[in-house]
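Quick check before the chapter quiz. The format below is the same one you will see on the exam, so make sure you can read both the input and the output lines.
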Amino acid sequence: MEIEVYKYRSVRNCLRDAYTAISENLKSVFRKTWWVVSLGAIALSFTTYFFLPNMALHVWGLENQIASFVVQSLVYLATIVFGFWVLCAFWHVINGRRWRENLPRVIVTQLLSAAIACLFKIAFDLLAKWQLSVPASPAEQQTGESASITWLFAVIGLGIVAVVTCIPLCYTFIRFMMGKHWLPFVGYGRAFRYWGTIFVAMLLIYLLAGIALAAVSLPGVILVSAQLYSQLGALGGDPLNIPGYFTPLLIATLTLFYFVVGYISLWAQLASTFLYGSIETQQAEKTKHDREENQTAIY
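Here is the expected output.
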């Protein structure tokens, strides 16, 4: 699959060209990725199933604690491993590198993303503790309005800081995955200069992806809701009233949903890469133009 990444594109063209590239090379992309996406979807569907309330599974786990621990550990480990594998396969489609070359970079970007998320979670928890420790006047204790407004502004401020600082990482991480540098934060200043463009592109990409996910998730949402309400009723002593094939149907539906989610994420990943290539092209043209102007001024 030949992809021309380094080409000037508008935000709209990035989205359109990503869809065109996948649709025109669908057989090639599917042949390279379907099996690993399928394995990842199966593992993730079982992980989701384990997190749903299930009285029979809970009782079995209490009676067979070692077996339950082993099964859950294997499923969770498989979900993580196949998740990294899927990302490597998708990046292989985009940058043409083998998964062994993509794997270290995928691990670095995912660990950094998790670390940044944990950092903001810690900041949010500290903010909550600070809010609870601030004494309020008797009038404020009765109404609670001042505390609520302060808390609201603090949360909004933290959210703005998170968005402003994390948006450029969408560029630097892709630059890192494309093999331009061995440090994932190189180019942060350049990305900050294109912050508005990256923000608009990410907003549109995830808005469209969210709409697509909402459409394909309806069957899974219905079955998961049925599972939740039936198990809640069972806790109250009511019969389950679900057919015997419900569990296989639920797992199969979740697997199909996550399979489709994988290729929607591939489109989002490719559209983001096209945006990165457009910024790189603009920067290269600007550098070339400045160099020519300097040479003209010298002579």
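If your answer matched, good. The CA atoms of residues 185 and 236 lie 53 Å apart.
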